[in-house]
Amino acid sequence: MFIELGLTEKEFFCLTPAQTFIIELQNKRKNEHIWVHTRQILAMIHNRTMGVKKYLRPEQIIKLSIDKPVKYEEWTRDEALDLINKWSNKN
Predict the structure, then answer these.
(1) Do residues 7 and 14 lie in contact, with contact meaning Cβ atoms separated by under 8 Å?
(2) Which burial class, exposed, middle or buried, applies to 4 when counting CB atoms under 10 A from its CB (0-12, 13-18, 19+)?
(3) pTM of the complete model
(4) Residue 71 sits in which domain range?
(5) Each residue of 39-88: pLDDT tens digit?
(6) What secondary structure letter does DSSP report for 5?
(7) How many structural domains is the chain composed of?
(8) Residue 35 lies in a domain
(9) How far is CA 87 from CA 74, 79, 83, in A?
(10) Radius of gyration of the chain (CA)
């Protein structure tokens, strides 16, 4: 796995789980953006071909995780301050 992320074994094992997750997510997003370009070209070829009766959107050809909108949990001010205090007390 660390080879796919461009890391040496030593670099990989020095990372925290959170850092590993972020690097893995970044690598996944980079690969998905390549697929975005690929499916746009496929859709363009399909839609410009003579005799095509049904127009296709790129998202209909290949579904990617970046197509879904990201939902963030909203916190109240009190909840946020409570989390900050808990985190501060641990450190």
Answers:
(1) no
(2) exposed
(3) 0.57
(4) 9-90
(5) 999 999 988 886 778 888 999 988 988 888 877 788 888 988 888 888 77
(6) T
(7) 1
(8) yes
(9) 18, 12, 6
(10) 21
Residue 14 resides in a domain: yes
Q: Is 78 inside a domain boundary?
A: yes
Q: How far apart are CA 33 and CA 39, in angstroms?
A: 10
Nearest Cα residue to 2 out of 39, 27, 38? 27
Among 6, 70, 64, 68, CA closest to 32: 64
Whether 1 maps to a domain, the answer reads: no
Q: How far apart are CA 53 and CA 47, in angstroms?
A: 9
Query: Between the CA of residue 63 and those of 26, 45, 49, 52, 53, what are the distances in Å?
Result: 18, 18, 22, 21, 22
Spatial contact of 12 and 20, defined as CB atoms under 8 Å apart: yes
* Calpha distance 24→4 (Å, rounded): 9
Q: With H, G, I as helix, E, B as strand and everything else as coil, classify residue 88.
A: helix
